[in-house]
Structures are given as structure tokens and as C-alpha cells.
Write a structure and sequence with these properties.
270 residues, mainly alpha, 11 helices, binds protoporphyrin IX containing FE
């Protein structure tokens, strides 16, 4: 088949599936920004996108696009390497005008997919999947203390729980940096494949790639920074109590110290 057997056909499948995923990310990022303004509004959207038939069709379509994009990426890379043969190793110096991300798209894709698996475990599994299980009759199925429609509660807990929340914020920021590089080149490359490749359009398409990647990643980053600030604020608010606890611990004779340390820590934490 043309879409599988010709190089341009394969690139077209990559471009169309990639751009469709960018549109999903734009929607997802914009929807998440609601968290900063109103948790109720966000939960209303989560309920709307729960285990309804249209949301399930959307999820299946999305999963299909991710698999298609991923499988074709592997296929294209293998075909390119076979076509270049040993020449691939002939030039090792950095090629002039070739951006770093364009040579590392597959690695960046693996990083994005790797974090996506973690993301699905953190949210999709505890929300839509749990709802599906309940609909199928497994009423006791529960993997979280939050209701499957309480997206705001889940996001807040993931990003603001002391220490782990801040670790997650940093992990998500690493993910977003990889996503930015992947999207910047991906959007450019997709538009290039679709015919915007003459001299006049080359610069514009590069600019569209950078702006598109920055918009998508910026929407997600707003939410991560919002909760990172919130979590650090909470930690700072607890700091005087922790200092007080340390001072109490320091005055305790060594013999009963273990018991008092445990008591003091419990009073501060609870
Ligand atoms: C601040 C960052 C993010 C937050 C707070 C967030 C939050 C969420 C939540 C709460 C869900 C579950 C919705 C539901 O199942 O009803 C979800 C699903 C999902 N997220 Fe994210 N997300 C973020 C970033 C990302 C990024 C960067 C990607 C992709 C690169 C992504 C891809 C997905 C996908 C594919 C789903 C499943 C959608 C579906 O079930 O149809 N998310 N996200």
C-alpha cells in the first residue's frame, strides 16, 4: 500500500497523526489551565470526559493515533538506516544548520512515551479506567482515595504532597522540556512534508513550530508551576513547627529521646 510502501506515504502518516496529537495536546493543556481558576470547573470537565461513550471513542482514537505514530516512527527510522547503510557512520562531526532535536526525534519520542505511561498510571487508571470497571460491575474496584471524577483532587495531591509532590513537579518539567523539543521539530517537519517547503515558507514554518511547541508546553507548565509554588508555600508554612520540634528534640536526654522524637514528629505531622 502507498501509505506504507513509499517514503512520502510513511512521512504523511507521521505528519497527520502527529498534528492530530498536537491538537489533542492543545485541548488538554487548555482544559488543565481551568485548575488554576476553579477546581469545580475542572471536575465538571473531567466528569463530562469520564466513561461516556463519546469520551471512550475519543480515548480509543487517541490510543490508535499514539500507536500509529510510534510504529511508523520506528519503521521510518529502520528504513532510513537501511537506506543509508554504512554511510551513517561516515560523518561524525555536527552537521551545519541541523538542529539537535531533528537528529534525536526517536530518543525524544521514547522519553515522551515513557513519561506518558507514568502519567496514565497517575490519572487515567485512577479515573476513566476505574469508572469503566464500576460500569462493568466491579463496584469495589478502587485504586485511589479520590472519586474517579475528582481530577482536581488527584492533580493537587500528586503535585503538592510534601517532597513527593515537588519531585513530581520536577519530573513533569523534564517531560515538558523533552516534549517541547519533540514538538518544535515535529510541527516543522509535518508542515514541511505537507508541502510548505519552498524558500518563502521555510522560515515561517520554523517559526510556527517554535510558537506551537511553546504554546502547548506553556499551557501545561502553568499548571505545574502553580502547584509547585503552592506546595513550596505549604512546606514553608510548616517550617516553624518543624524548627520547634527540632528544638524540643535537642533538649531531650538521650535515654528517652526515641519516644519523644516519635511523639514530637507525630504532633508536627498530624
Ligand atoms: C500539567 C500537566 C498535566 C496534567 C495536570 C494532566 C492531567 C490529566 C488528567 C487529570 C487526566 C485524566 C482525565 C480522565 O481520564 O478523565 C489526563 C489524561 C491524559 N493525559 Fe494528561 N495531564 C498533563 C499533561 C499531559 C501531557 C504533557 C500529555 C502528553 C504528552 C498528556 C496526555 C494525556 C493523555 C493521552 C490522557 C488520556 C486521555 C483520555 O483518556 O482520553 N497529559 N491528564
Amino acid at each position: 500500500m502507498w501509505l506504507k510502501d513509499s517514503s512520502i506515504g510513511r512521512k504523511l502518516v507521521m505528519s497527520i497523526s502527529g498534528l492530530a496529537l498536537v491538537f489533542f495536546l492543545l485541548f488538554h493543556g487548555a482544559m488543565n489551565v481551568a485548575l488554576v481558576f476553579s477546581e469545580e470547573a475542572y471536575n465538571w470537565i473531567c466528569e463530562f470526559l469520564g466513561a461516556n461513550w463519546y469520551a471512550l471513542v475519543g480515548t480509543l482514537g487517541l490510543a490508535g493515533l499514539v500507536v500509529l505514530h510510534f510504529v511508523y516512527a520506528l519503521y521510518l527510522t529502520v528504513q532510513n538506516r537501511l537506506a543509508r547503510g554504512k554511510d551513517r557512520y561516515a560523518v561524525t562531526a555536527k552537521r551545519e544548520g541541523v538542529e539537535w532535536e531533528s537528529e534525536n526525534m526517536l530518543v525524544l519520542g521514547f522519553v515522551v512515551i515513557g513519561f506518558l505511561v507514568l502519567h496514565m498510571a497517575n490519572f487515567w487508571f485512577k479515573m476513566q479506567f476505574t469508572e469503566i470497571m464500576h460500569i462493568l460491575g466491579a463496584h469495589d474496584f478502587s485504586v485511589s482515595e479520590f472519586a474517579p471524577t475528582d481530577g482536581a483532587g488527584l492533580v493537587k495531591a500528586l503535585f503538592t504532597t510534601p517532597i513527593w509532590g515537588q519531585v513530581y513537579c520536577v519530573l513533569y518539567l523534564v517531560w515538558l522540556v523533552a516534549l517541547w523539543f519533540h514538538l518544535r521539530h515535529g510541527i516543522w517537519s509535518a508542515l514541511h512534508t505537507m508541502g510548505f517547503n519552498n524558500l518563502k515558507w521555510m522560515k515561517r514554518v520554523k517559526c510556527i513550530g517554535t510558537l506551537g511547541a511553546t504554546l502547548v508546553v506553556g499551557l501545561f507548565a502553568v499548571v505545574v508551576f502553580y502547584y509547585l509554588g503552592y506546595g513550596i508555600g505549604e512546606l514553608c508554612a510548616q517550617a516553624p513547627a518543624v524548627v520547634e520540634a527540632v528544638e524540643v528534640i535537642e533538649t531531650v536526654p538521650v535515654v528517652d529521646s526515641v519516644e519523644v522524637v516519635v511523639d514530637t514528629v507525630q504532633t508536627v505531622v498530624l
